[in-house]
C-alpha cells in the first residue's frame, strides 16, 4: 500500500468526522453519539501514524528507534476499545449495567495499552524497521508478545462488533440495515487482517519467510475494512440528515400557495430576510407571515366563501382586492374542515397557535383549488394566486404578487358550460 493511500484515508476519515462534529457538539451527552464520533479521529490517527514517513519522523523526534510501533499499537488498541464500547452502547439495557460494562472496557484496554509499552521497553528493538517490524522482531522476546497482544485485542473487538451488527441487521430495515451490513463486512475483513498478521508471525516462528502477507496484504485489507466500517457508521446518520432536509424543504414549498395568498391580503410590507438565510429561518418567516394574514381575516373564515365576495364587507386594514383571496381561503378552510370531520377538527385556533400541520393541509387544499381545470371545454373559476410570481427554489418574503383578474370568482360549485 503506497504512502499516498495512507494519507488519503486520513483525509476521508477526517472529513467524515468534520461532518459529524456539529452533531457531536449538540449531543455530547448522548453516549451513542460519543462512541460513533470518537471512532473516526482514532481511525484517522491510526493511518496517519502508521504511514512510513510519519513513523520515521516520530522516531527521529523521540530519539527512540521504533517508538512509533507502540504508539500506533496503542492507538489501534484504543480504537478497539471504542468499537467494544460502541457495541455496549448499541446493545442498550439498564443504565447502571451499561456504565459498568463501559468502565470495564476502558480499564481492560487501558491495561493492554500500558502492557504494550512495558513490553516494548523490556524488549530489544534497536534497529528501525518502517514496514516489517512485526515479522522482523517476531522471535524477539517481549516484542513478539507485544505484537501478538495488539493483534488479538484488535481481532476480539471486531469479532464482537461483527456479531452484534449482524444480529441487529436482521431486525431493522432501510439504510440502517445497509450501514450495519457494511460494518459487518468491514469487521470480517479486519479479522482477515488479523489472520494475515498471525500467519506471517507464525511463519517466522517456523523458520519461513512470509513477510509479504504482513507488509502488503494485511495493510490493504485493513484499509478497506476501516473504510467500510466508517461508511457504515456514517450512512444511517447521513441518510437521516438528508431525509430531514428534504422534509423541511418539502414543508417550506407546500406553504407557498397559502403564503402568496396572504401576501395579497395583508396591506403592509412583509419583513425581508437576507438571501443567504437558512431554510429554517425562511420557513419560520413564511409561517409567521401566514399567521399574521390569517389573524386579519379570522372573523371571515367561519362564514361561507360567497359572503366574502363583497368588497364593502372587508375590514379597512386589508388590501382593496383582498375579497377574492379571502373567498379562496374561506372555501379551502371549509373544504379542509369537511375532509377532516371524521379524523380531527380543523381549528383556526390551532393554526394561529402553532399547528404547522394544519397550515400545510390548508395550503395543499388551496393549491388544488387554484390549479386551472385542464378538461377540454372547461375552465376553473378560481383565479390563481401565483400569477406573476417568481417560483424559484429559494424565494423569500420579498417576492411580488402579480396582477390578479378583475372578475370575482363564482360560487365554488359553479362551472361554466
Concise summary:
This protein is mainly α and 417 residues long. It has 14 helices and no strands. Residues 246-366 form the DUF6545 domain.
Describe this protein with a few key phrases.
elongated; 14 helices; Rhopdopsin 7-helix transmembrane proteins; 67% helix; 417 residues; disordered C terminus; mainly alpha; 2 domains
What this model shows, in words?
The chain crosses the membrane at residues 6-25, 32-51, 71-90, 102-122, 142-166, 178-203. This is DUF6545 domain-containing protein. Residues 373-417 are annotated as: Disordered. It is a single chain. The protein is an all-alpha fold and 417 residues long. The chain folds into 2 domains: 3-247, Rhopdopsin 7-helix transmembrane proteins; 255-370, no CATH class. 67% of the residues lie in helices and 0% in strands. It is built from 14 helices and no strands. The chain has helices spanning 3-26, 31-50, 52-62, 68-91, 95-122, 133-136, 143-169, 174-205, 211-254, 256-263, 279-297, 322-339, 348-353, 356-370. Helix 1 (3-26) runs parallel beside helix 9 (211-254) and helix 12 crosses helix 14. The longest helix is centred in the middle third of the chain and has 44 residues, at 211-254. The protein is elongated, with a radius of gyration of 33 Å.
Amino acid at each position: 500500500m503506497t504512502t499516498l493511500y495512507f494519507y488519503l484515508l486520513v483525509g476521508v476519515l477526517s472529513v467524515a468526522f468534520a461532518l459529524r462534529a456539529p452533531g457531536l457538539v449538540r449531543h455530547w451527552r448522548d453516549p451513542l453519539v460519543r462512541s460513533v464520533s470518537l471512532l473516526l479521529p482514532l481511525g484517522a490517527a491510526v493511518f496517519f501514524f502508521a504511514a512510513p514517513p510519519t513513523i520515521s519522523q516520530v522516531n527521529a523526534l523521540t530519539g527512540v528507534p521504533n517508538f512509533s510501533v507502540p504508539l500506533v499499537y496503542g492507538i489501534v488498541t484504543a480504537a478497539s476499545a471504542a468499537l467494544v464500547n460502541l457495541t455496549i452502547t448499541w446493545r442498550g439495557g439498564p443504565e447502571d449495567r451499561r456504565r459498568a460494562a463501559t468502565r470495564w472496557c476502558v480499564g481492560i484496554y487501558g491495561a493492554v495499552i500500558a502492557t504494550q509499552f512495558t513490553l516494548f521497553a523490556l524488549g530489544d528493538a534497536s534497529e528501525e524497521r518502517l514496514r516489517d517490524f512485526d515479522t522482523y522482531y517476531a522471535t524477539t522476546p517481549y516484542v513478539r508478545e507485544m505484537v501478538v497482544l495488539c493483534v488479538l485485542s484488535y481481532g476480539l473487538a471486531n469479532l464482537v462488533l461483527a456479531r452484534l451488527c449482524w444480529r441487529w441487521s436482521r431486525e431493522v430495515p432501510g439504510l440502517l440495515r445497509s450501514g450495519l451490513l457494511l460494518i459487518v463486512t468491514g469487521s470480517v475483513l479486519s479479522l482477515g487482517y488479523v489472520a494475515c498478521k498471525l500467519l506471517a508471525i507464525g511463519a517466522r516462528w517456523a523458520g519461513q519467510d512470509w513477510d509479504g502477507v504482513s507488509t502488503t496484504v494485511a495493510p490493504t485489507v485493513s484499509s478497506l475494512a476501516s473504510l467500510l466500517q466508517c461508511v457504515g457508521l456514517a450512512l444511517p446518520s447521513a441518510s437521516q440528515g438528508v431525509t430531514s432536509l428534504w422534509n423541511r424543504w418539502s414543508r417550506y414549498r407546500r406553504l407557498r400557495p397559502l403564503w402568496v395568498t396572504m401576501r395579497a391580503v395583508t396591506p403592509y410590507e412583509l419583513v425581508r430576510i437576507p438571501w443567504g438565510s437558512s431554510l429554517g429561518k425562511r420557513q419560520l418567516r413564511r409561517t409567521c407571515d401566514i399567521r399574521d394574514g390569517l389573524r386579519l381575516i379570522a372573523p371571515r373564515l367561519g362564514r361561507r366563501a360567497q359572503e366574502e365576495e363583497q368588497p364593502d364587507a372587508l375590514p379597512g386594514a386589508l388590501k382593496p382586492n383582498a375579497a377574492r383571496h379571502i373567498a379562496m381561503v374561506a372555501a379551502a378552510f371549509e373544504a379542509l374542515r369537511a375532509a377532516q370531520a371524521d379524523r380531527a377538527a380543523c381549528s383556526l385556533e390551532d393554526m394561529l397557535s402553532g399547528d404547522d400541520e394544519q397550515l400545510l393541509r390548508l395550503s395543499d387544499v388551496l393549491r388544488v383549488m387554484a390549479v386551472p381545470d385542464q378538461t377540454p371545454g372547461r375552465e376553473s373559476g378560481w383565479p390563481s394566486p401565483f400569477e406573476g410570481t417568481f417560483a424559484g427554489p429559494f424565494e423569500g418574503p420579498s417576492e411580488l404578487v402579480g396582477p390578479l383578474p378583475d372578475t370575482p370568482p363564482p360560487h365554488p360549485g359553479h362551472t361554466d358550460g
